Amino acid sequence: MRKASVAALILVLTSCRGPGSASASGNSAVALPFRVTQVATLNGPWAMAFLPDGRMLVTEKAGQLRIVSQDGTVSPPLVGVPPVVAAGQGGLADVALHPDFASNQLVYLSYVEPGPNGTSGLAVGRGKLAEAGLEDFQVIWRQEPKTNDNLQFAGRLVFSADGFLFISSGDRFLEQPAQDLNQNLGKIVRLTDTGDIPSDNPYYDQGRVKAQNWSYGHRNPLGLAFDRDEHLWEVEMGPKGGDELNLIRTGRNYGWPLVSEGTQYDGRAIPRHSTMPDIEAPKISWTPSVSPSSLLVYSGSMFPAWKNSALIGTLSGQALIRVTFDADSAQEVDRFPLGARIRDVAQGPDGAVWLLEDGKQGKLLKLTPATGK
């Protein structure tokens, strides 16, 4: 399937299977196949990563990194976090653990840093987690160039099984940089764990910035995850409509702003992917927009029906969407309404699913199977 039709997506399962508890917003009109438990409340949470002992590192957009226990205990802000520009859509963003965290204690952060003359840009750095916070924090990558706007930074981080770091870099609402391979805006970037450029990147011998790029033509990619076969998947926000789920292929062009399944905010049409067959088309597109914010490929046993499915948190959609894969195609199979903007989705060590609500009083939620499931 190249992409789901608009009609199918609008009519896709908005009802849920089986009995459950009230939704995250307290609306019990729709039964959910899981129980929602509020664990903590945070100030503008953006992302979470589970430590080996089951506690979570949680970022807050304003610049705080905290440790949250599964009983809801929230630590004071950790020290050693770099200065953050928290404005518009920018701030402290994703957090990820080094694949060998158990031995090296390295934590990676993406965040917006200041530049000259009021500019700013996404950066990625790493530091060693100690008792009080991060030590020896070093920047390993930056968006180039920095710009004056505060929109569409993206900033999701994920490691591949072979230890490479992938970074989603937004187009900063500038559109054309997404097609300029000499910039790293509107790209998926691939680096080593130290920030070096792998020699098998598609543009390795074509200049330092260009060599970082793994794929291009992206708008605001806010979710990255590998499936069980180590295929990289990405979700990104389209303009007015046209949100996308993409299968990321090395060196490929994903079309923005040349093509989209959406339209410009002022109503101007954009050519569809079908008009440019050499450009990679999304495996699913959503119109109306759901504003995908995060992506998890579930591998646990607590929800056996979800194993190897993608779970997508949505902002304007205020839902958790489940997608199944078949070779290089994908299909939406469930949409669970939660009545809240979902900023991040993660899997706990025991297979529970955890969500972060967006906003100043964003809740940390734990999903477990409904009674009898």
Can you describe this structure?
The chain has 373 residues and is mainly beta. The chain has a single domain (6-365), classed as TolB, C-terminal domain (Neuraminidase). Helices cover 4% and strands 40% of the residues. The protein has 3 helices and 23 strands. The chain has helices spanning 6-11, 101-104, 208-212; strands spanning 34-42, 45-50, 56-60, 64-68, 92-97, 106-114, 120-129, 134-142, 154-159, 165-169, 187-191, 213-216, 220-226, 232-237, 243-248, 284-286, 292-297, 310-314, 319-326, 329-337, 342-347, 353-357, 362-369. Residues 1-28 have low confidence and may be disordered.
Describe what is shown at a glance.
This protein has 373 residues and is mainly beta.
Q: What's the layout of helices and strands?
A:
Layout: H1 6-11, E1 34-42, E2 45-50, E3 56-60, E4 64-68, E5 92-97, H2 101-104, E6 106-114, E7 120-129, E8 134-142, E9 154-159, E10 165-169, E11 187-191, H3 208-212, E12 213-216, E13 220-226, E14 232-237, E15 243-248, E16 284-286, E17 292-297, E18 310-314, E19 319-326, E20 329-337, E21 342-347, E22 353-357, E23 362-369
Antiparallel strand pairs: 1-23, 2-3, 3-4, 5-6, 6-7, 7-8, 9-10, 10-11, 11-12, 13-14, 14-15, 15-16, 17-18, 18-19, 19-20, 21-22, 22-23
What is the count of structural domains? 1
> What's the CATH topology label?
Neuraminidase
Rg on CA atoms, Å:
19 Å
Write down the overall geometry. Answer: globular
List descriptors.
373 residues, mainly beta, Neuraminidase, 4-stranded antiparallel β-sheet
